[in-house]
């Protein structure tokens, strides 16, 4: 059996943070005596990721996603447990390891603000000891995939957020890392830029068989990119498996959305299913999968329906349920 | 390997030259600072021929030489270090196969080279325009010692700046200690006045600290004011400081990074 690229066993990362009482008096007090509380950012997490997988980390703010990524990329020393990436222990930060991984954080940048992105690329070329020919090919290829060929020589501060993130991504990928950690790569981007980023991540994963771990707030990112998701909350894993299975398991129901031509009394809709939304001319009904065909037909025959669609429940709603329930 | 640091060198220059106005104003500031000190001493010597054992020629030479030394020794990115630690961009080093100290040292050297080119130009201009009675040191041994002292001064200043900036790993803001350092530098480094005009006891005490070795010591070597014994004694103290500060810096980098990776941000 092939060894997994990433393996994490019972990983824990605790911080102690000092707490300040509110107000000026609290500030003065905290000069002399500090109260510390322990934050369990990651609390006994285990998983394995194989080569070429594209895995999504989902969870609310402070769930431990970023902390996990930081441990895996060698930025944080684990409190206990084991983390291995490509056979290395990340926190040792050996150059051989560092040349094989990359971390992109949507809210941090490595590009030199006052210079064109191109200059940062050249610096990274030297830092990672990339050969000239391969460097040129890689930049060309990545720039074409991201459609930023014409802005590489423009001062970074003059770029839009979307352009900058794309350049950040190129800078992080010049050394063709086998493992890529993406922390909120689409944060703050507009819909078009988000789409380009997603397409790129997908293509990069397929073309280079790179292992990618991605965190995101946008379910859209995860839905489109990741077959497998790891849902994490308060430092613990709630679910680790296929995204499609979580839909099956958590949402054995469908939603009928219907527009009526004339006002329909709410009372008349009772018996079709659970009414989620209603305003007289429009209704959303949630009902079990078995019933959906029959009830939809009945709806069409009973009322003057202008439009009708049958949909799966929104993935956001399902995830919300997972968090509410606390376990799968 | 060396390419890595050469590129850092080049990119630093480019960054420095991006904003022309900023760059020019910075040079203007340096020149004004130099002229200010120059004219204060020039005025003092209008009514006297010798003060504190200095002639007009030796003090004006001291001022001009110390301007050059200042440009080379007292230029540092130390404040960048603490900023990067505080805003978390230090992560960029931790994730890459790149030495933390060597990166900043390359950046500093780049600044220093740029500075020295300009300050030599500026000082030459002052000499041509104002024709001060300067003293030209011609003894090659003295000039070698002068260069050596300046190089050790560069290392000393680099280490001091770094050590103070590294406190950012533990405290959120290292501006307090940095500010204090700048005051010590200005007062006791010898940039404004040669510190041997201070009372003997104070002077002897200061010579035990690293500060006078940044400007005062090399400038006085240039003037040829030290005896062989003094040169030996002061070089010993200076080398002691370089070694001590170097190890302290290394230790703090290791501890700091360990602390950073343990605590996280």
TrEMBL record, chain A:
Domain of life, per lineage: Bacteria
Keywords tagged on the record: ATP-binding, Nucleotide-binding, Transport
Domain ABC transporter, first and last residues per copy: 26-259
SUPFAM superfamilies per the UniProt record, alphabetical: P-loop containing nucleoside triphosphate hydrolases
One Pfam family in the UniProt entry: ABC_tran
GO MF entries: ATP binding; ATP hydrolysis activity
CDD domains: ABC_NatA_like
PANTHER family registered for this protein in UniProt: ABC TRANSPORTER ATP-BINDING PROTEIN, ABC TRANSPORTER RELATED
This protein's name: ABC transporter
Organism name: Candidatus Daviesbacteria bacterium RIFCSPLOWO2_01_FULL_39_12
Species classification: Bacteria, Candidatus Daviesiibacteriota
């Amino acid at each position: 059996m092939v060894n997994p690229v990433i393996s994490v066993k019972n990983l824990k990362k605790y911080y102690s943070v000092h707490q300040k009482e509110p107000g000026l008096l609290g500030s003065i007090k905290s000069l002399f005596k500090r109260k510390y509380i322990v934050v369990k950012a990651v609390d006994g997490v285990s998983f394995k990721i194989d080569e070429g997988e594209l895995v999504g980390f989902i969870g609310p703010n402070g769930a431990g996603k970023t902390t996990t990524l930081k441990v895996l990329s060698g930025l944080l020393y684990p409190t206990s447990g084991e983390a291995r990436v490509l056979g290395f222990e990340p926190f040792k930060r050996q150059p051989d390891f560092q040349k094989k991984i990359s971390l992109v954080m949507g809210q941090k940048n490595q590009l030199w603000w006052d210079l064109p992105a191109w200059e940062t690329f050249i610096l990274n070329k030297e830092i990672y000891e990339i050969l000239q020919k391969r460097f040129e090919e890689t930049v060309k290829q990545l720039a074409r995939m991201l459609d930023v060929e014409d802005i590489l020589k423009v001062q970074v501060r003059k770029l839009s957020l979307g352009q900058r993130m794309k350049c950040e991504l190129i800078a992080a990928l010049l050394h063709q890392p086998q493992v890529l950690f993406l922390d909120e790569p689409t944060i703050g981007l507009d819909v078009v830029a988000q789409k380009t980023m997603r397409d790129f991540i997908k293509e990069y994963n397929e073309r280079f068989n790179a292992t990618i771990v991605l965190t995101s707030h946008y379910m859209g990112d995860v839905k489109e990119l990741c077959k497998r998701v790891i849902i994490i909350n308060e430092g613990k894993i709630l679910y680790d498996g296929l995204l499609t299975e979580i839909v099956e398991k958590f949402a054995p129901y469908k939603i009928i959305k219907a527009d009526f031509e004339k006002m329909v009394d709410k009372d008349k809709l009772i018996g079709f299913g659970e009414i989620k939304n209603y305003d007289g001319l429009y209704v959303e009904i949630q009902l079990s999968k078995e019933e959906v065909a029959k009830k939809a037909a009945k709806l069409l025959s009973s009322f003057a329906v202008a439009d009708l669609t049958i949909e799966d429940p929104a993935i956001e709603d399902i995830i919300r349920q997972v968090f509410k329930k606390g376990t799968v | 390997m060396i390419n890595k640091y050469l590129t850092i060198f080049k990119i630093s220059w480019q960054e420095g030259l991006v904003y022309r106005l900023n760059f020019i104003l910075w040079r203007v500031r340096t020149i004004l600072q130099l002229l200010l000190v120059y004219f204060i001493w020039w005025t003092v010597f209008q009514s006297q021929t010798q003060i504190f054992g200095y002639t007009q020629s030796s003090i004006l030479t001291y001022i001009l030489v110390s301007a050059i030394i200042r440009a080379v020794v007292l230029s540092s990115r130390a404040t960048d270090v603490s900023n990067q630690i505080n805003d978390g961009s230090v992560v960029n080093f931790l994730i890459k196969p790149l030495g933390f100290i060597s990166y900043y040292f390359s950046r500093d050297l780049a600044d220093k080279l740029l500075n020295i080119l300009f300050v030599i130009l500026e000082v030459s201009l002052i000499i041509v325009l104002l024709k001060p009675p300067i003293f030209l040191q011609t003894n090659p041994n003295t000039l070698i010692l002068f260069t050596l002292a300046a190089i050790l001064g560069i290392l000393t200043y680099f280490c001091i700046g770094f050590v103070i900036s590294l406190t950012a790993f533990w405290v959120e803001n290292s501006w307090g200690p940095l500010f204090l350092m700048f005051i010590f530098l200005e007062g006791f480094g010898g940039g404004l006045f040669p510190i041997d005009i201070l009372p003997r006891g104070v002077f002897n005490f200061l010579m035990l600290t690293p500060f006078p070795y940044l400007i005062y010591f090399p400038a006085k070597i240039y003037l040829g004011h030290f005896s062989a014994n003094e040169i030996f004694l002061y070089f010993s103290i200076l080398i002691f400081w370089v070694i001590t500060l170097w190890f302290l810096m290394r230790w703090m980098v290791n501890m700091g990074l360990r602390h950073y990776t343990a605590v996280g941000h």
